[in-house]
Amino acid sequence: MAGLVADPGFWKARRVFLTGHTGFKGSWLSLWLQDMGAEVFGYALPPDNGLNLFEAADVSQGMTSTVGDLRSLDDLSSAMQFAHPEIVFHLGAQSLVRESYVDPVGTFATNVMGTVHLIEAARRLNLSCPDGPPVRAVLIVTSDKSYRNNEWIWPYRESEPLGGHDPYSSSKACAELVTAAYRSSLIETEMPTLKIASARAGNVIGGGDWAKDRIVPDAVQAFAQNRPLVLRNPDAIRPWQHVLEPLAGYLALAEQLYRGLPRAADAWNFGPDASSEQSVSHLISLVSKYWGEGARWNVSTDSHPHEARLLRLDSSKARFELGWHPRLPLERAVKMTVDWYRLDLKQKDAVREFTVAQIRAYAATTD
User: Fold this and answer.
1) Tens digit of pLDDT for each residue in 275-327?
2) Tell me, what CATH number does 157's domain have?
3) Is residue 160 part of a domain?
4) pTM of the entire structure?
5) In sequence order, which residues have a C-beta less than 8 Å from that of residue 327 and are 6 or more positions away?
6) Strands of 183-300, DSSP E
7) Domain span holding position 136
8) Domain count of the chain?
9) What is the pLDDT of residues 130-165, one digit of tens each?
């Protein structure tokens, strides 16, 4: 499988159910699946008011989009029953560390019970079908912050202890435990043809991310308004990667789950090369370089909620078992991201076309 990005022949006409399709990652994945000819069904809350990729790229144009809350098992089950999918991607989540301090109850309800509801909805659908279970693969997307962060210099492997200092990180670790428990106690015994896995990715960047308290969206809005960006943690090191990198890993993993590869039903890391594990200030220096005039920043002296300073991922398993590997050096990833935002500022009616063009260019990359 060396060199694989995604196999359009596999995904053509495949019925795919996707939670969180109105979000940043979900919008990119929805467009990629649509471009490969999949029949895509989405279930998520409405996109954020104001700026969002889902509306900017008219993502709903090529899919069935259902507005719903992960906290409602009945609504989620109904949507999945209607979709009758073969493959399920679970990207829906409360995805911000700082927001989890403001609303810890909502964060745990969405990220933990939302995961329970998603797996249970797939399980119920399969149990209700006398002609055979339609769902063959479920991929639960969590986070690199699922790990108990010891602030050490070594990258985390999938076998490292889970944990979480803040509600968001803890909720993602809990989602991993939920996935493992369902897989070992129910899925493997009731329906062995269904394979379920989890994916932990690093910090993603890419066009169309407008979430608050994320470094690149904050930078773009500051630079576009000709005001300085204020950095909270300039020395914090993160595993930066373009959003298409982990999405390629999710697609490769889902394909192997569908094909019944036993070892695929496990937890997986999808992180960048060590050269892309850089400080926040280094990332913003690159963003400033490609943005040009108007890009400037300084460091906040205020106190802020705790966030991890150093976090690295070991993606050796995905490289050797799935043939997946990161393809974009950090500088290239930053340039693609800045190019997207520049296009959005100048020609909003071309956003969908440009986003799909970036997907196709990435899919065409070779080793």
Assistant:
1) 999 999 999 999 999 999 989 999 876 655 555 567 889 999 999 999 999 99
2) 3.40.50.720
3) yes
4) 0.94
5) 5, 245, 248, 362, 365
6) 195-201, 203-205, 229-231, 237-242, 267-270, 277-279, 297-299
7) 14-302+309-363
8) 1
9) 888 999 999 999 999 999 988 788 899 999 999 988
